[in-house]
Amino acid sequence: MSGGPAVDFAKAPNGVDELFHRINRAIPSDQKILALSPDMLARDAIKLLGDKYFSQAPVVIGSKVLGVFSFRSFARKTAEYSLEDLAKHKHSPGDLTVEECMEKANYADLTDDLNRHFDNLERDNSVFVGTPNSMLAILTPMDVLRYFYRVASPFVALSEIELSLRTIIRSAATEQEIGAITESVLKRQFGKDADIPKSLEEMSFDNYRLIVASGDTWPRFQNAFGGSRERVSGKLKDTGELRNILFHFKRPISEDEIQKIGQVRDWLLNRVEQVNHRSEGRENE
Question: 96, 102, 216, 277: which could join 42 in a potential S-S bond, CB 3.0 to 4.6 Å?
Fold first, then answer.
């Protein structure tokens, strides 16, 4: 059976929980709990878990959780049986009931920090959220992995974008040429007394856009970046704005914006691969 009424786990009881990585933020909003009755035969429970691609499920009577039945708990129970025991009891392991094979469950509160339960997640592959009389959800290692991936992926993609930009720029110009281009473009943009960065590593993200997509410098970089100057400049400008929003935590970015970051990352990855291919071709000549 499924769980009770839907709970908006993302809504924390107080504002501070929106700032920290707590359990309520990692639980899938569309989670449906599969529960087993204590008198269900183990063979039926194993088949049901397999059909649902679950490794375990709570054992429930009424609204009370009695324990957890899992592939592990079933294996542990059947490992206790000898051939003599099976012959004496005149049944196979599949004839055991779920209640005979279940283990105790560990519980967590919605507002617990995720890292408090890493050991339990590693050992038991799940943590029940709530209490035995009011279970709200089940947290699994994959839920935590997906949550942290959602949190980290835009930052990782932006780091790959920035490193890719440096690689592509260096493929089209020597360090001395980059220095001269930087001096010319950035002083024209910010004034002759401006403090100009000495290397790509010291530049801001928008500095990259300016030295690549300025009218007089674009011919040098066109082959490396492909497309038109306007499109390249637009992509980098939009990405820089999202980078600023994300790195300064101005607001949460949307799924569409995360996809846009990913598209720019994939575009630059393709350009880096082409740069490397051309470089390898020259080395083999």
Answer: 96
Query: By the 8 A CB rule, do 179 and 186 touch?
Result: no
DSSP 159-206: HHHHHHHHHHHHHHS-HHHHHHHHHHHHHHHH-TTS---SSGGGS-HH
Protein fold of 15-139 = CBS-domain (3.10.580)
Closest CA to 42 of 77, 74, 81: 74
Map out the domains of the chain as residue ranges.
Answer: 15-139, 146-284
**pLDDT greater than 60 at residue 196:** yes
| Alpha-carbon gap, residue 99 to 123, rounded angstroms | 21
Task: Give the pLDDT confidence of 249-262 residue by residue, as tens digits.
Answer: 999 899 999 999 99
Whether 225 and 271 have beta carbons less than 8 Å apart is answered as yes
CB contact burial 215-233 (16+ within 10 A = b; e otherwise): eebbebbbebbeeebeebb
> Residue 128 — φ and ψ, nearest 5°?
-85, 135
pTM of the predicted protein model: 0.77
Locate tokens 């039926």: which residue?
A: 44
Other Cβ atoms within 10 Å of 266 Cβ, number:
13
Overall average pLDDT of the 66-80 stretch: 93
**Strand segments (E) across the chain:** 56-61, 64-70, 107-108, 127-131, 134-139
pLDDT tens per residue, range 146-159: 999 999 999 999 99
Distance CA 69, CA 108 (A): 18
Relative to beta strand 107-108, strand 127-131 is parallel
- Token pair for residue 187? 């002083």
